[in-house]
Design goal:
alpha/beta; 2 domains; 4-stranded antiparallel sheet; 16 helices; 12 strands; binds adenosine-5'-triphosphate; binds magnesium ion
């Protein structure tokens, strides 16, 4: 509405006063694209710097042991400098654009004022007409100037919003409110079959981790998974716990497809111990009873005995109520593993899964512990991954993994005669044992 009125009042003055508007709009539009690009790079660089800081803190012990403080600090400093440079470019460009805009609108105002006064002096316009014209003009230029300066601010915010939406668009693992409901582990376990049916899985576009894996573990029996490093053993366990979903094939728990179950419903039926040891800040008792529904003193005593933790408990100043971690008692790697193992046993779920859960414990103790554990858990389905092939002998079935495929499945004695790969692993392990401890190897083979 305003521009036609201005042209109606004085078309020459209107043309002169509006001549700067297309120019300032063009400058703002052109600069906003550049500002957006710099802001995007700055946000990415900032995110990378923060990830590096978190990684460096999480791995502080490795950084110290390798004496790489200087390198790690240098990496973070370089990323911080790059972020700062990009942010300065973006802010500097915004400042230059606003100066350019002010200059163009200043020149336009000077021309407009000069022409207005000339018109008044040669009486082609009255002073009242000029003042009315100026008032109308402010109605137009005010919002247009604000809009063009908003344009660059909007580009910076759009980058942040874009990154925020990337996270908001991620699909939640659990879609219902049930995540926040207390989850009771299935006590007094009902053993059921675990079946992998033609399962293939790949972590990314490059190379498959599992190829057409099929096997069935009957309910209440024990399965040992063996194979070289990178053979896909932990990937099998990840899929079983629904940490990932296979691209093809299916996993059935007691005949029910894992695809139909929420991850939390899968995990509440099982107790899993990973290669990474998960102790929390708190007392030994809190660590043992984390996620454990029952408080059965007799069961706790039996589990402590099987996990060879009685000696540790009696040596601690406050027994089970001793504080663990930085502010309390420091426990060794093997002790930590046994605490986490005891927690899994105390959960009494239908399925017990151990992924090299005893790898930090010496071979002799590990063998005895595993035998006692399997004797105690006879009614549960137990799946354990092990690098110490001799412990596979204690299981009802052995699964031999090789380059992501099943190389053999059966009892230990059958596999020794049918699977070349298993025999090779067994012999290699026996040779290592003999080299380390000839007496033990003799006893083991007797
Ligand atoms: N998070 C991941 N992202 C991409 N590839 C992965 C990931 N985890 C494992 N892989 C790859 O998948 C393959 C199988 O790995 P997996 O961890 O299952 O082996 P593994 O048999 O458990 O080995 P190890 O005995 O060393 O623990 C390997 O080639 C590995 O490089
Ligand atoms: Mg593994």
């Amino acid at each position: 509405m305003v521009p036609p009125v201005l042209f109606y009042l004085n078309w020459k003055l209107a043309a002169l006063s509006l001549i700067g508007l297309p120019l300032t709009t063009a400058i703002s539009l052109g600069a906003s694209r550049l500002v957006r690009r710099y802001a995007k790079h700055a946000a990415e660089s900032n995110a990378e710097m923060q990830s590096s800081q978190i990684d460096a803190l999480a791995q502080i012990r490795t950084v110290k042991l390798l004496c790489t403080e200087h390198e790690v600090f240098g990496q973070i400093r370089d990323l911080a400098s790059a972020t700062l440079r990009l942010q300065l470019k973006s802010t500097g460009l915004t400042a230059v654009v606003s100066v350019l805009r002010a200059t163009v609108s200043g020149v336009a105002t000077a021309l407009f004022t000069w022409y207005g006064w000339v018109s008044i002096l040669n009486q082609s316009m009255t002073l009242g007409g000029f003042l009315a014209f100026s008032a109308y003009l402010r109605y137009l230029t005010g919002p247009v100037t604000s809009l063009s300066s908003l344009l660059t601010d909007f580009q910076v915010s759009a980058v942040s919003l874009g990154r925020l939406f990337e996270y908001l668009d991620l699909k939640p693992e659990v879609t219902s409110q049930s995540l926040y409901a207390p989850r009771v582990v299935q006590a007094s376990p009902v053993a059921y079959d675990v079946e992998f049916r033609d399962v293939s899985f790949s972590y990314g576009p490059t190379g498959k981790a599992l190829h057409s894996v099929s096997f069935v573990v009957p309910g209440g029996s024990t399965l040992a998974i063996v194979g070289a490093s990178g053979a896909g053993k932990s990937t099998l366990i990840r899929l079983l716990c629904k940490m990932d979903v296979p691209q093809t094939g299916d996993i059935l728990l007691g005949g029910e497809s894992i695809r139909k179950l929420q991850p939390i419903d899968v995990r509440s039926q099982m107790s899993a111990v990973w290669q990474e040891i998960g102790l929390i800040r708190g007392t030994l008792r809190q660590n043992l009873l984390l996620g454990v529904p029952t408080r059965d003193a007799a069961r706790l005593k039996a589990v402590l005995e099987v996990c060879r933790l009685e000696e540790l408990v009696s040596s601690l100043p406050d027994g089970l109520d001793s504080q663990l971690g930085e502010a309390g008692v420091r426990v060794s790697g093997g002790q930590r593993q046994r605490i986490v193992l005891a927690r899994a046993l105390l959960r009494e779920s239908a399925l017990l899964i151990l992924d090299e859960a005893t790898s930090n414990i010496d071979g002799h103790t590990e063998s005895a512990l595993l035998r006692d554990l399997l004797a105690m858990e006879q009614q549960r389905t137990v799946i354990y991954v092990t690098h110490r092939v001799h412990t596979a002998e204690y299981a009802d079935f052995v699964l031999v993994m090789h380059h992501g495929s099943v190389d053999g499945f059966g009892t230990h004695s059958t596999l020794l005669s049918t699977s070349l790969h298993y025999r090779g692993l067994w012999k290699a392990h026996a040779a290592i044992e003999q080299a380390v401890d000839p007496m033990h190897a003799l006893v083991g083979s007797a």
